[in-house]
Design a protein that fits this description.
Helix content: 25-40%
Number of strands: 27
Main location: cytoplasm
Largest sheet: 9 strands, mixed
Protein name: Probable acyl-activating enzyme 6
Number of helices: 17
Family: Belongs to the ATP-dependent AMP-binding enzyme family.
Radius of gyration: 24 Å
Keywords: ATP-binding, Ligase, Nucleotide-binding
Shape: globular
CATH class of the largest domain: Alpha Beta
Structural class: alpha/beta
CATH superfamily of the largest domain: ANL, N-terminal domain
Mean pLDDT: 91
CATH architecture of the largest domain: 3-Layer(aba) Sandwich
Strand order of the largest sheet: 2-1-11-10-12-13-14-15-16
Strand content: 25-35%
Domain AMP-binding enzyme C-terminal: 453-532
Length: 553
């Protein structure tokens, strides 16, 4: 057959940004965003995002620049997921739970030109900028005000900020022509890993990859038209697993919430007839352990990932009327790419067995080409549910690579595979189950944290000789850091710290979610003959302690 070639008619770059214009056409008068007493329609959201993009461009932001956002799940944060890439710029969402030092590192490494700052994060970001070298240009700042959070007494903004978010939005052009990508491989997002190493890595995602994972997630979760999504998953967490664009694609309603607890969640579910939610297993645990929990009046679909959920938590969650779907993904995949796809025949099994099966991570989603578990030689391990190997994958939503880190990119993107660093088994039926994590990553409340980073702070304590940090099971957070510490010899009695004093020291030098909840003083850390600390011994010790009960950070 004659060799036909692509043309402009059939080769336009894939991007999820066009979903918003489509939503404004089909669902123009239906609610797009609800936040307390604020309600926007899809037509209004489309216009606001174009206006904001117009104003961002007027500030000199151009294609390829990085624009950062640090805010909770409020309307502005949702709008920024479209408005920033509408300018051709690269969107960088920053975790609101980070400390000033880490935020400063991210802003400098990304060379961010503009930062949208929620009022609650104002002092944190200003502190981060103070850590910039004097010869380094600081990014421009836009303040996101929120009358529901703080009393706004003046329409003016202090000298650290060039404008407020709303002022910038309303003065923009609603007829602005947004900047499409030149190719679908153009970068669209820059997400930093949650401290899986001592320094977070900047993960770059393309328009193509983001389009694929968005459509993939909608199909895999079987999201219908016009769902009502309660934003219990931070949008800064891998861009809300792609659902900011996904909900636009299906004309749904985004129920925004600045800060939530179990009472708030149950109230909003009832008030808005919520149909869908996302969150780490800690969210499931919070709901099931709350005194406010009651059987739901209607079914709510909840998608969980971030750490293997205990079967008991799944069982309790579904007993309330939630229908739990379980998946697996990484910052490097932009969302969930493995799903515990449910088989109808499993419905006939006892509830405890159903929960056990659902706690497995599952099989590749349709957007992924392949997912496997391999040995050090790169060969597939036995499908026996027992043989450990590293989880690898390939597919269209795998990242382009790590920003300014060719060695890190080459180490995980090799031989045609993305090597995740996670350790798992493959069951006989082809379902993946994560068993452990390399590099001693601890997942607390769905956020990855580095034991190396916690250890580096512990070593700064004047009385600490050696320190090693492993995960300890936590009934609320899933996992929390457990620190084993040996003290220096020759300390005077008044110089010997108590466990609580070491915790307080960490609290002053780390984000709260990274602070060890358990500190064990030990005479000497177990080591190999070459002097390396045997963390597997410490993990066994932490396991024997049992899970922490009702832990809070």
């Amino acid at each position: 057959m004659e060799q036909l070639k692509p043309s402009a008619a059939n080769n336009s770059p894939l991007t999820p940004l066009g979903f918003l214009e489509r939503a404004a056409t089909i669902y123009s008068d239906t609610p797009s965003i609800i936040y307390n007493d604020t309600v926007f329609t899809w037509s209004q959201t489309h216009n606001r995002c174009l206006q904001l993009a117009s104003s961002i461009t007027s500030l000199g932001i151009r294609r390829g620049n990085v624009v950062s956002a640090i805010a909770p799940n409020i309307p502005a944060m949702y709008e920024l997921q479209f408005a920033v890439p509408f300018t051709g710029a690269i969107l960088n969402n920053i975790n609101t739970r980070l400390d000033a030092r880490t935020i400063s590192t991210i802003l400098r490494h990304s060379e961010s030109k503009l930062v949208f700052v929620d009022c609650a994060a104002r002092d944190l970001v200003l502190e981060a900028l103070l850590l910039f070298p004097s010869n380094l240009q600081r990014p421009l700042l836009i303040l996101i005000k929120d009358e529901t959070f703080e009393e706004v007494t003046s329409s003016t903004v202090d000298s650290n900020f060039i404008s407020t978010y709303e002022d910038l939005t309303v003065k923009g052009d609603p007829l602005f022509k947004w900047v499409p990508p030149k190719t679908e491989w153009d970068p669209m997002l820059l997400n930093y890993t949650s401290g899986t190493t001592s320094s977070p890595k900047g993960v770059v995602h393309s328009h193509r990859g983001t389009f694929i994972v968005t459509v993939d997630s909608l199909i895999d979760w079987a999201v219908p038209k016009q769902p009502i999504l309660l934003w219990t998953l931070p949008i800064f967490h891998a861009n809300g697993w792609s659902f900011p664009w996904g909900i636009a694609a299906v004309g749904g309603t985004n129920i925004c919430v600045r800060k939530f607890d179990a009472e708030t969640v149950f109230t909003l579910i009832k008030k808005h007839h919520v149909t869908h939610m996302c969150g780490a297993p800690v969210v499931l645990n919070m709901l099931t352990n709350s005194p406010d929990n009651k059987p739901l009046q209607h079914k709510v679909h909840i998608l969980t990932a971030g750490a293997p959920p205990p079967a008991a938590v799944l069982y309790r969650t579904e007993s309330l009327g939630f229908e739990v779907s379980h998946g697996y993904g990484l910052t490097e995949t932009g969302g969930l790419v493995v799903s515990c796809s449910w088989k109808n025949k499993w419905n006939r099994l006892p509830a405890t067995e159903r929960a056990r099966l659902k706690s497995r991570q599952g099989v590749r989603t349709i957007g992924m080409t392949n997912v496997d578990v391999v040995d050090p030689n790169g060969d597939s391990v036995k499908r026996d549910g027992a043989t450990l190997g590293e989880v690898v994958m390939r597919g269209g939503c795998v990242m382009l690579g790590y920003l300014k880190d060719p060695e890190g990119t080459a180490s995980c993107l090799r031989n045609g595979w993305f090597y995740t660093g996670d350790v798992g088994v493959m069951h006989e039926d082809g379902y993946l189950e994560i068993k452990d994590r390399s590099k001693d990553v601890i997942i607390s409340g769905g956020e990855n944290l580095s034991s190396v980073e916690v250890e580096s702070v512990l070593y700064g304590h004047p009385a600490v000789n050696e320190a090693a940090v492993v995960a300890r099971a936590d009934e609320f957070w899933g996992e929390t850091p457990c620190a084993f510490v040996s003290l220096k010899n020759g300390l005077k009695e008044k110089e010997i710290p108590k466990e609580k004093e070491i915790v307080e020291y960490c609290r002053k030098n780390l984000p709260h979610y990274m602070v060890p909840k358990t500190v064990v003083l030990i005479d000497e850390l177990p080591k190999t003959s070459t002097g390396k600390i045997q963390k597997f011994v410490l993990r066994d010790m932490a396991k024997k302690m049992g899970p922490l009960k009702k832990s809070r950070l």
